[in-house]
Amino acid sequence: EVQLVESGGGLVQPGRSLRLSCTTSGSTFGDYAMSWFRQAPGKGLEWVSFIRSEAFGGTTEYAASVKGRFTISRDDSNTIAYLQMNSLRIEDTAVYYCARMLGWLPDIWGQGTMVTVSS
Amino acid sequence: EIVMTQSPATLSVSPGERATLSCRASQSVSGNLAWYQQKPGQAPRLLIYGASTRATGIPARFTGSGSETEFTLTISSLQSEDFAVYYCQQYNNWPCSFGQGTNLDIK
Predict the structure, then answer these.
(1) Nearest beta carbon to residue A105 from set B34, B100, B101
(2) CB-based contacts of B81: which residues, under 8 Å, 6+ apart?
(3) Which residues pair with A89 in a beta bridge?
(4) In DSSP terms, which residues pair with A71 in a beta bridge?
(5) Cross-strand pairs, B76
(6) Tens of pLDDT along B38-76?
(7) Are B79 and B102 a contacting pair, CB within 8 Å?
(8) Is the pLDDT of residue A27 over 80?
């Protein structure tokens, strides 16, 4: 069974940084693209960032709202995806989910990790 | 970006009855449309992809239909565990985008 587990969330002040991790098991991590999504309290789902597999260059994409502040990366040897979040804003407060991607289709999601940006 | 619009925002249905949820895309997404179920405090769960293909382990009472810009999720004979929020998502164009959700609650 494929499992994704996020970690690294917490309470952080505006302007500070946080790094989220997504540890996977049960599938060939390197074969898949990965994405991060988020869901603000009481709101819908928003795509945040995407990283292709190394076979497709490991290139990345970002939502306009986070471009220049967030960086997605992957460590295929340890089957972990990361989201480095810098210059955090109050509006970044959300549950952050990682997901395995089939093209642009997220088929398996982690349970999420809460990020709260507040002074 | 393709805008996905779901209706209704809230749907109240009695257990055992049928629920019909709608999703409209601002431009054609071909058949690249997925449906997700989300319960409070849980991650989204993939129900339907390719507009009409059930994901692994999804019961046959969940049926997806439609193409291009108009899509429907039908849940026949609602069970207690089906009351949740449902999201549609297009993955035809970058970036993928979600509808705002339909809250299916017990009547």
Answers:
(1) B34
(2) none
(3) none
(4) A84
(5) none
(6) 999 999 999 999 999 999 999 999 999 999 999 999 999
(7) no
(8) no
Q: N- to C-terminal Cα distance for chain A?
A: 40
Is B96 close to A47, i.e. CB distance below 8 A? Answer: yes
Q: Which residues pair with A84 in a beta bridge?
A: A19, A71
Measured between alpha carbons, how far is A82 from A19 in angstroms, rounded to an integer? 7
CB A79 within 8 A of CB A51: no
Chain A residue numbers with beta carbons less than 8 Å from the beta carbon of B46 are: 105-109
From chain A, pick out residues whose CB is under 8 angstroms from the CB of B91: 103-105
Contact B43 A109 (CB under 8 A): yes
> Do B87 and A45 make contact, defined as CB atoms within 8 angstroms?
yes
- Percentage of the residues of chain B whose pLDDT score is greater than 90: 96
Residue of B nearest to A36 (CA): B96
Burial classification of residue A110, based on how many CB atoms lie within 10 Å of its CB (0-12 exposed, 13-18 middle, 19 or more buried): buried
**Residue the block writes with tokens 């997700």:** B36
> Is residue B105 within 8 Å of residue B12, measured between CB atoms?
yes
B21-39 pLDDT tens trace: 999 999 999 999 999 999 9
Coil vs helix vs strand at B15: coil
